[in-house]
Amino acid sequence: MAGLLFMMRLVSSGITKRGRSGGSELALVALIIWGFVGSAIGRFGFGYNANALAFFAPLLILIVNLVSPVRLTTRVVLRGFAVVSAIYSLSAILVLIFNIQIAPDFQFRHQTAFFLVAGFGSALVLKARLLLLLHAVATATCFAQYPALTYILLLVVAVVCTAYVCAPHRLRLPFLYVIAAAGLMIILGRSQLDGLRMAYFSTVGKGDNSSTRETLFRIGVEKLRASPFWGNWFVENISVKAPDSITGGQVLVPLHDDYLQLSVAGGLVFTTIFTVVLLWICVRALHFSASTNRSPTWRIRNLYSLSTASKARYVCAMSVLAIMVDAMVNPILIEPGAALTLGVLLVAIFCLREKDDE
Prior knowledge:
Oligomer: single chain
Strand content: under 5%
Largest sheet: none
Helix content: 55-70%
Radius of gyration: 20 Å
Number of helices: 15
């Protein structure tokens, strides 16, 4: 509902006139049109009911933003995400602690944990201590209810993004080198991390479903090999028929890796361009936020001295990165709510773009 209100705001009378569209925005719109047309043809022309239409239809908000004369203000963006994330955290507490069934329990698991990241960033830049406490309680509650490793990964995303924006200018480039090297080591040493992963699940008392994910991954890779570059042009289903031991009676199940799932549907061409463009948008947004930090020291108080536009872009970029990391291990981009959230975050970043940043 928040996303629909956001879209209505975009098509209402303008706040201020927008400048020209950037290349990353146009590239995303082209990719969305590609995915939406293919999914619509598959859904309504061939009867594929489990294709990527639920992902691309909400992302049409980017096309609405492209033709809209409206440019959102930084205050609207910051306050908006603060309110939405506060509602999420409060609802999680009411449902999981007090058992007030305003929504199903599974709505507050790791697949939607990016709302907690958005809330964390909003509370920090607004210096809202009560809001920060609310998100901390909600995070602890959600983790205690379902201690998925995703929460740890998203915490790392929030800490890294915050550390980069708060870092003094002379340390930002070395900091990026360290992060890139750490990421490369994790990718190359994935097999050596199995012991740590199993130790984690044993410590928190949660079952390790890695074997199930690896089975689904192998199924997805086999489907990808049939058409590695262009996939099935998003016409066919992106969920797969898995062994009965996994499906539990379901006919089709998602691959639990959205990048592999998008590759099966749109090929490596689509997924590579889509991922690179999203990363470019986030890095540019974080760089813009960090560039307004003039402090010679590395401290959390540097967030408070940022310009309002820098604060808003920091929150949006960090939240988009949280969604991207979440999508590596969970099927979140096939959920319309998650897709609409991603679209709203991207629209906010584009609306906050400065003239010298285009």
